[in-house]
Write a structure and sequence with these properties.
Length: 349
């Protein structure tokens, strides 16, 4: 297939790069990257012939093909139940990673997996719970936490489930658990207070959870966000910009006095861990890419590129997923795509 994108190169946002990586990202040998690069860097519509061809090719190639090839006919991965375990092979991770890879939302296997999550992972309070039980019963609300709810909610929204009543309940849980409005469902073992407080972070506000929550709410069209969701977004932005994103010294429990080293290792795919780049992604997707307080993190990001304008995968989950997406420590099309998406938002708006 002829590549018609080479004459339509991005302009302003590539100025701060040492070289233009987009021809590399558009190579047909990695169709999932090509698909998303066409959509996110070149603003091609979903029905563009090149986009459709890349998406179809991506569905037939690893890593998407490997994930879908291990799905049980009933819709789950590895074992029935809520699907949090085993990491990173279970149902919830498979759906999260399929979304990050740009899998086709219309594919029957993807839809079956989403339906399974909605039927088995959502607690009575509307949030998604981190339960590894094989019992096919709803997990308890005490296991609902921002990172998982945000990751799954983002995936389901990306796969087109915005108007499903169960997804609307998860959105409402996400927003009200942040602001505290009309919400009394905090637990010592899970989400333990408003403002992203989490038991996993010794009941302190968790920035990783906040980033996942904001990435989810960012996928709701502004015109369709409820007032409480808008207030949750404002609170999330204020929290994430309340510290220098390049330093990432957010509240930390468990006796830690320095930010987790994973903050400074941009990688792909993304589980519950977040990095400085993902913090930038969340803030940019929420429409504040021009915020001056992002510039130190943008400079940090630019400093990590190599002479070819490419980034390494420093957190690759090798040996933990159905198939390795990329090699640890090697040049990464996925991380480079993530970085370019942020730079496009910051420079071009």
């Amino acid at each position: 297939m002829a590549d018609t994108t080479t004459t339509q190169q991005p302009r302003q946002w590539t100025v701060r790069l040492r070289a233009d990586p987009t021809p590399w990202l558009l190579e047909e040998g990695t169709p999932a990257v090509r698909h998303l690069a066409l959509r996110q860097l070149f603003d091609r519509p979903a029905d563009d012939p090149e986009v459709a061809a890349a998406r179809a090719a991506a569905m037939e190639a690893d890593p998407i093909a490997a994930i879908l090839g291990n799905q049980h006919p009933e819709g789950y991965w590895q074992k029935p139940g809520a699907g949090y375990g085993p990491k990173y092979l279970g149902t919830v991770w498979s759906i999260i990673f399929l979304d990050q890879l740009g899998a086709d939302a219309a594919d029957e296997r993807v839809r079956r997996g989403c339906e399974y999550v909605l039927a088995h992972t959502q607690a009575e309070n509307g949030g998604f719970a981190s339960s590894g039980s094989v019992k096919e019963i709803r997990p308890t609300p005490s296991r609902v936490i921002h990172c998982l709810n945000g990751n799954l909610l983002r995936a389901l929204l990306g796969f087109g489930w915005l108007h499903d009543k169960r997804v609307q309940r998860a959105i409402d849980w996400q927003a009200r658990s942040i602001t505290g409005e009309g919400f009394d469902g905090y637990y010592r073992s899970g989400t333990s207070g408003p403002g992203f407080a989490c038991a996993v972070n010794e009941k302190l506000p968790c920035a990783w959870g906040a980033i996942k929550a904001m990435l989810a709410l960012a996928r709701i069209p502004t015109a369709e966000r409820s007032p409480v969701a808008n207030r949750a977004v404002a609170q999330g932005i204020a929290f994430l910009l309340g510290r220098d994103p390049a330093v990432a010294d957010y509240p930390m429990g468990m006796g830690n006095t320095k930010p987790n080293a994973s903050w400074f290792k941009p990688g792909f795919p993304s589980g519950y861990v977040a990095d400085v780049l993902q913090n930038l992604e969340a803030i940019c997707e929420l429409g504040v890419a021009k915020e001056e307080r992002l510039q130190p993190a943008v400079r940090w990001l630019l400093a990590k590129q190599d002479a070819l304008g490419r980034w390494k995968n420093e957190y690759a989950y090798n040996g933990k997923t159905w198939v390795d997406f990329e090699k640890q420590g090697q040049r990464s099309k996925w991380v480079t795509l993530r970085a370019c998406r942020v730079l496009k938002a910051v420079e071009d708006g």
